[in-house]
Design brief:
Length: 426
């Protein structure tokens, strides 16, 4: 029974230092497995990479709790089974079925990170008709159980058909896949937070806010999945998990935003300076806006003062990236999909300041978040806007944002460049 898990690589991960509970809260795992157990009527728990329980068993049977787990020797054998089963699962990296020492069926759906198993969902204490009366009597004698009470407890176990066990295992495998994705996404966020520990508190707050926002969204969907399980409605269950799978790429993109922000705010900044045409850069920004589809299309209007020289020495790639980022992110808030960019210059010692003013009409509800995100890099609803400010600062520039009662927002960017001698204004 092969798991439908995807391999989420985390390059350079020391797996010995990563624990499932570092990435996913125990309470969250407990709630999810409780919902699964309620739906399937099968006992289940979550374990770590070594097979140790990290949650309380959901729907635990009287047979196991009052006999094997209440007996020192019985509990010892149970733990040995758990460790051995998890070892085999980790080696195969797929959902596997086992026969425990009490003659019951168990299966493990692994939770993975970086191609390695960091935990698993365990369906357990399942009576499938394998354990004969002779085996039950033998177990009672072996562990010193009261034979009559033990046999009575076993008889009370509901017998589960093989196809029902396989269906439950496959369903648990889907849950394990979702948790693997969540673990991977959380791992990426934690890595970026660690990288930014030496940076400013506003940058750390930005990363934490983005992470918390995405985690909240994922938790909401997973809780909806739990409710779908409890409803016993196959159509609702299928729809909920389909919605999750469709939504997940957006969350991964959100973590990509975090990763890009972390890269941009790293302490090592290199400029790729060369001689470039300012008007050529602006023309490319106009094309970029036109190439965007649907609601993200932006019509960029550029106006360059006649006195502005055309040729400069600087990082044209970073300048264009900054302007493109401004175009793409402001499109989310624009009323009419139009952005006006005006460029003037100001002589400053040996350098020439490019004075770029970008203005647009925005939706009132988004005004505050745009301002906060750009100036303070703390608001996560416009995370891309925050990177505009990072790129400006990397070019030794400044950024100021203002707005008025007419919902007009203006980004004023000043970037020092070197005007090339002999460059003529156009």
């Amino acid at each position: 029974m092969k798991a439908i898990l995807r391999d989420y690589h985390a390059d350079g991960v020391d797996m010995a230092s990563i624990h499932l509970t570092d990435l996913i809260e125990v309470q969250f795992l407990q709630q999810l497995q409780d919902a699964f157990s309620e739906y399937t009527k099968i006992a289940v728990y979550t374990c770590d990479a070594q097979g140790n329980k990290i949650t309380t068993i959901s729907r635990e049977t009287f047979h196991c709790s009052h006999f094997f787990h209440a007996s020192a020797e019985g509990e010892k054998q149970c733990q040995a089974c758990q460790r051995d089963q998890m070892k085999q699962t980790a080696a195969k990296r797929e959902t596997m079925k086992f026969r425990c020492h009490a003659g019951l069926t168990e299966f493990i759906a692994p939770i993975m990170l970086g191609g390695e198993v960091i935990g698993g969902f365990v369906g357990t204490q399942i009576h499938d008709g394998f354990a004969t009366k002779q085996l039950r009597i033998a177990n009672a004698k072996k562990y010193g159980f009261d034979e009559v009470l033990y046999l009575k407890a076993f008889d009370e176990l509901p017998e589960v058909k093989e196809e029902e066990i396989d269906a439950a295992a496959q369903f648990l495998c889907v849950m394990a896949d979702l948790i693997s994705q969540l673990a991977y996404a959380n791992y990426l966020a934690l890595q970026d937070i660690e990288r930014l520990e030496s940076n400013s508190s506003s940058q750390s707050a930005f990363i934490m806010n983005m992470h918390d926002n995405i985690k909240s969204q994922m938790t909401q969907i997973m809780m909806q999945s739990g409710e779908a399980l409890k409803s016993h409605n196959p159509e609702r269950m299928s729809q909920t998990f389909e919605e999750f799978m469709l939504t997940f790429p957006e969350w991964i993109a959100g973590y990509d935003e975090v990763a890009e922000y972390a890269n941009m705010t790293d302490t090592k900044i290199e400029l790729d300076e060369d001689i470039y045409s300012l008007r050529d850069v602006l023309d490319r920004v106009v094309v970029f806006g036109d190439s965007r589809m649907g609601e993200e299309h932006v019509t960029v209007h550029t106006l360059v003062e006649d006195s502005v020289p055309d040729t400069y020495l600087g990082d044209s790639g970073k300048l264009r990236k900054m302007l493109n980022k401004l175009v793409s992110e402001t499109s989310k808030s624009s009323v009419d999909g139009e952005l006006n960019i005006c460029v003037a210059t100001q002589k400053c010692s040996y350098a020439t300041n490019l004075c770029i003013e970008a203005s647009m009409q925005i939706k009132d509800a988004s005004k505050g978040s745009v301002l906060i995100a750009t100036n303070d890099a703390k608001d996560n609803s416009h995370s891309g806007i925050a990177k505009v400010g990072v790129l400006v600062r990397q070019m030794a520039g400044t950024l100021a944002v203002t707005s008025d009662d007419e919902n007009q927002i203006v980004f004023r960017i000043v970037i020092p460049q070197l005007a090339v001698a002999g460059s003529e204004a156009k």
